[in-house]
Amino acid sequence: MKRVEKVAIVGLGLIGGSLGMAFTQGNVVEQVVGIDRDRNSLELGLATQSIHHGTQDLEQGVRGADLVILAVPLGQIVPVAREIKPFLAPGSIVTDVGSTKVDIVKNLEELFYPQIHYVGGHPMAGSERAGIEAADRYLFENAVYLLTPTERTDRQALEIVTALIEKTGARVKTVSPEEHDLIVAAVSHLPHVIAAALVNTVGGLADEYPDILTLAAGGFRDTTRIAGSNPELWRDICLANAEKIIKMIRHFRHWLDQFEAVMAAGDKDTLTGIFRQAQEIRS
Questions:
Q1: Is pTM, for the whole model, over 0.85?
Q2: Strand pairing of 6-10 and 121-123?
Q3: Which of 175, 193, 212 is the last residue of a domain?
Q4: Which residue range forms the structural domain that includes residue 99?
Q5: Residues 215-232: what's their mean pLDDT?
Q6: Please, what is the Cα angle at 256 between 252 and 260, to 5 degrees?
Q7: pLDDT at 128 over 90
Q8: Is 65 helix (H, G, I), strand (E, B) or coil?
Q9: Rounded to whole angstroms, how far apart are CA atoms 195 and 200?
């Protein structure tokens, strides 16, 4: 297997910074270069041992890299990929951490194939906090990290990315881009939509009941924690995966309708059954 000596991480936010920490502090590769437009992020990356070197220059950062990780916001992945392509050596590997995959995989395979090997990726780990300030070396420990190979994916490149990601403590699973987008619509994107809707529902009662949010206990806070995430980031994710998220919203609405119907009918047994079904699936 080809030895990876230089990894370039474009975007030192929560995910990029955490990957850098895992690679540098775990002595996974010899050189991790961080690339970010924000000088403060680069300085913090050096101070927290997230990177060995930092630069604001894309060409300087990616040139000579064996692996480039695009850890920029979803809407920037394809434009940044186009910008770095002239500086990448044939046979180098590019991966990303985007929250949707169908369109990104299609675009990046068309851009890079066959000279540069692209492997789609998405760590199923994160936080409502953003930026390298929130980075954590152990963010990926025992987390699932999805890779989305296709028929065009170079097998050795897939093995290399898998091996590196596993050294962060993550559990790598491979799915198709289409499967990925449906799965994350259900287990990641829909929960964010629900959390935002719940907060807005309760917030809409604040004029009539000013203390309502201050009286909310742990259950409400736990359920709505992710509503504190970056609004622009989640706008882009929802629009990029709209078809599948809408499909999940319709499934969810079915269950809300079920709750409404059985409560209106006073049907104790059916209501208990719905809660019990959820309890068993959850366990």
A1: yes
A2: unpaired
A3: 175
A4: 6-175
A5: 89
A6: 165
A7: no
A8: coil
A9: 9
